[in-house]
């Protein structure tokens, strides 16, 4: 598939033969008999904001610590900008890290914290403090330069940590749950600020997070991890719309899964027989053969609810509203079909004065063929 | 039942612990030469104390020993604690863990005797230390004080956020630099507390000092002990009161520093 030139420039991973800036090859990390990271291959391109997403204990932090040099891979190799990192200690790597706890030095002022890395580089004191001041201005903390870390709020500390990690202009910035300790409102504001800073400086970011919304908002691409392996790598939209496994489909957003088998494959249509929904018609998907066990995945918002039978799709069923939750911008429904199957659906509330479908109503629930994603694992 | 039992138990406990000390302090202000007979308030014995060359000399020896051994013990104990908390596996780790705390539970008589034997055999084979005196007491006190410092420093190092050290590494500081720039300042309050504790322990010690001291190097507890054997004189009460004051101040400061250090570590 050919892409417009501009997209290829901002999305180098789509371009055939593009040179990876960071490459992780067959990296495994074992602690005694526990395998934290298992045979991971990963290419990250210059200027990316890459998110490693997964539940705690999935190995994402260990992978990040190997990039920073705090852990050595048991097997495999990591190269950054063409340089093998195997024997390079953390203090000589072209990377900087922003720690989950922020790790601000408690006995140093904000200014000293930020200048510390520059002074270790051998920069003159005046130059180091000048650049630290510039960086503090960028994160809007120049007025608090003389404070000690324990005199700052959580959000301010987060920005000091970011300034300290960025001041050396690393080739790669590693961020371990950078927004994890902030409250919801501040987190959302900071997300966009982080993107802005990343675009301004052009530094490659790798962010570790367990928060899927955060990953979706921040990332150019997401790597979903589970049990030390990368399950899927892709742009946020790819991960959401075309997950490659039930795990990814369920981990990112919520999903209805229907187990079934492929009944018929035609050039323009395909039919799968599902246990929950009976026969479902959908556009053909490559690599499927008749009789194969598959799972049909549908996002809740892709279902349409109506009081009369919809005409525009062959996939429609009748059911009863068992639960309904009004959230404001949308409503969530649980619809019980006649055969007892429970379906999660959601509707956005676009009109103020509509007559909403409510508890115990008989409704038609329908879905467009293209809304189905067929998963094989 | 709970209404009166708890206060009574507390009162009894305090009396049991502190009545002897209070009576000692009170009798240090006694005018009478007889220790057990109250003859009115006076600071006479404090004055006599200041004219006693022997006691002043011993106090000076004790202070020198306490200062030197507390300082050495802090250095050794801190290094030991650092190795035990930051290096997860090396040959002899278990042995070192055990050995570093052994002096805490070892009877002082055994520590003193073994050190004496060591010094004597060293003198015979190496020619050093020539005789026993200030240096041998300092070495002896350093060995058991280092154990106390190591325990305090270890607990502080464990509670310290290790990502502070990693952050400094990440920003371009080598391991030695990190120790002096980050680790040491962060655990400093605990080390001061450890130093003060070592200082008071050294000041207190009678048994080990008696084993390893030589002529001309009697510590204060040794002098007091030998005086008391000839009968308790009231100036000893005055001296004891002063020592209690010193120890009290040091222990309070040490405790305060340790608590502050712990709070900062959280």
List the keywords.
heterodimer; A: 377 residues; alpha+beta; Rossmann fold; OB fold (Dihydrolipoamide Acetyltransferase, E2P); 2 domains; five-stranded antiparallel β-sheet; 9 helices; 24% helix; disordered N terminus; B: 266 residues; mainly alpha; translocase (chain A)
Topology of helices and strands:
The complex is a heterodimer of chains A (377) and B (266).
Chain A: H1 5-10, E1 22-31, E2 34-44, E3 49-53, H2 60-68, E4 75-80, E5 83-84, E6 95-98, H3 110-120, H4 125-138, H5 154-166, E7 172-176, H6 184-201, E8 204-209, H7 212-218, E9 221-226, E10 229-234, H8 236-241, H9 246-251, E11 256-265, E12 270-274, E13 278-282, E14 293-298, E15 304-306, E16 315-326, E17 330-337, E18 342-348, E19 362-367, E20 373-375
Parallel strand pairs in A: 3-8, 3-9, 6-7, 7-8
Antiparallel strand pairs in A: 1-2, 1-4, 4-5, 9-10, 11-12, 11-14, 12-13, 14-20, 15-19, 16-17, 16-19, 17-18
Helix pairs in contact in A: 3-4, 3-5, 4-5
Chain B: H1 2-27, H2 44-51, H3 53-86, H4 93-105, H5 108-125, H6 134-159, H7 163-170, H8 175-204, H9 207-212, H10 220-229, H11 234-265
Transmembrane segments (chain B): 5-29, 55-82, 94-122, 134-157, 178-200, 206-226, 238-258
Family (chain B): Belongs to the binding-protein-dependent transport system permease family. CysTW subfamily.
Organism (chain B): Roseinatronobacter thiooxidans
Report what the structure shows.
In chain A, strand 12 (270-274) and strand 13 form a beta hairpin. Chain A has 9 helices and 20 strands. Chain A has helices at 5-10, 60-68, 110-120, 125-138, 154-166, 184-201, 212-218, 236-241, 246-251, and strands spanning 22-31, 34-44, 49-53, 75-80, 83-84, 95-98, 172-176, 204-209, 221-226, 229-234, 256-265, 270-274, 278-282, 293-298, 304-306, 315-326, 330-337, 342-348, 362-367, 373-375. In chain A, the strands form 4 sheets. Chain A has a 6-stranded mixed sheet with strand order 6-7-8-3-9-10, sandwiched between helices. Chain A has a 5-stranded antiparallel sheet with strand order 13-12-11-14-20. The longest helix of chain A is centred in the middle third of the chain and has 18 residues, at 184-201. Chain A folds into 2 domains: 21-250, Rossmann fold (3-Layer(aba) Sandwich); 254-375, Nucleic acid-binding proteins (OB fold (Dihydrolipoamide Acetyltransferase, E2P), Beta Barrel), CATH 2.40.50.140. Residues 1-8 of chain A have low confidence and may be disordered. Chain A is of the alpha+beta class. In chain A, helix 3 crosses helix 4, helix 3 (110-120) packs parallel to helix 5 (154-166) and helix 4 packs across helix 5. Chain B is mainly α and 266 residues long. Chain B has a single domain (44-265), classed as Orthogonal Bundle (MetI-like fold). Chain B has 11 helices and no strands. Chain B has helices at residues 2-27, 44-51, 53-86, 93-105, 108-125, 134-159, 163-170, 175-204, 207-212, 220-229, 234-265. In chain B, helix 2 (44-51) crosses helix 11. The radius of gyration of chain B is 22 Å and the shape is globular. The two termini of chain B are 40 Å apart. The mean pLDDT of chain B is 88.
